Amino acid sequence: MTQHSDIPAMMADLGARAKAAAATLAFADPAAKRAALEAAADAVLARRDAILAANAQDMAFARDKGLSPAMLDRLKLDEARLGGIVAGLRTVAAQPDPVGEVIAEWDMPSGLHIRRVRTPLGVIGVIYESRPNVTVDAGALCLKAGNAVILRGGSESFHSSGALHACLVEGLRAAGLPEDAIQRVPTRDRAAVSEMLGMTDTIDVIVPRGGKGLVGLVQREARVPVFAHLEGIVHIYVDRAADPRKALEVVLNAKTRRTGICGAAECLLVHRDVADTLGADLVAALVAAGVRVHADETLAGLPGTQPATDADWGREYLDMDIAARVVDDIDAAIAHIRRFGSGHTDAILTEDDAAAAHFFERLDSAILMRNASTQFADGGEFGMGAEIGIATGKLHARGPVGAAQLTSFKYLVEGAGTIRA
User: Fold this and answer.
1) Is-contact 385 372, C-beta < 8 A?
2) What's the pLDDT tens digit per position in 365-375?
3) Sheet holding 265-271, edge to edge
4) In this structure, which topology does domain 7-227+401-414 adopt according to CATH?
């Protein structure tokens, strides 16, 4: 690992170079951006042995630090996951270029013709933990949207992120785009994060992607605007009109497919009318799958459960744990989610259209689902190719942040010698 004695100077240099690159990217040929992403995908394939070797270093480092199995899963790369990274790059490459897209267009009685068009944000700083694929997702999406990006990955993924970043730079070089368009902070030193949060002259927005501690730190200390990606305290409400087969499949998938991602279910709410039947079956299936069920007083007597404490409501486990509670009706479920949720993703399982409409209307999470696993809370599954995070704020970007969400807009106004009376 390279040692840097003057972190402020290093970060100032990264910022200045990113700002210069962003000025060029703002009007870069869409074909060049596409070519850069395709070449990066080719580079990942060509370098996959070196990337996997770098990841093995990171995995050993993480094990020595005592990371949980779920966190190790977030960090791990294998052939299948590299294949997913390559596919994501190609998908983003093939998408329409958002820069210059006309969002709205109209004429005024004064004779003015006005267009609102997408424009890049400028320089984006991405601060993330563990998952090395974020290096590629963030780099690709920022480039597609005409933004330069400064990437600061977690210490655990230092070598993996470095190997993947090299592929992105190779793509930029092959396409004739500025290599400074996608830069990586080359140190594990946490002082670099503090510097990024104050770089108001060169960074236009910060995107934190990680746990509650990281996001909270960024929100408290950043002087640069932030796209918040809060923890995924994801709820599934099983309505009295839920289909039992669908419920079993969806709940198990939502909890156990990958426990360490932000779309993993963390709390199961069951309508009282089906608590003794479907609710009991769901708890039994979760226990059989190895999930530790933290159950309320109604469900705590079921085999394999453990009593829930106050700390279990509103908790992001990111592990083989789930909180479970019986609620009197759909409004009680909504009240619970409003109190303990994080506004990320929440789901209802029901065959009752009116109940689903009520759930969708009364809750304001970034993503609401019906009869589908919350593991689909992912930009790739939304057709965006990748995502830079799930934004839980209500200003600018919300939900999966893809290329289009990494743009702002400007007004183009044309007249014919038009003057105002």
Assistant:
1) no
2) 999 999 999 99
3) 306-307, 292-295, 321-327, 265-271, 234-238, 345-349, 367-370
4) Aldehyde Dehydrogenase; Chain A, domain 1 (3.40.605)
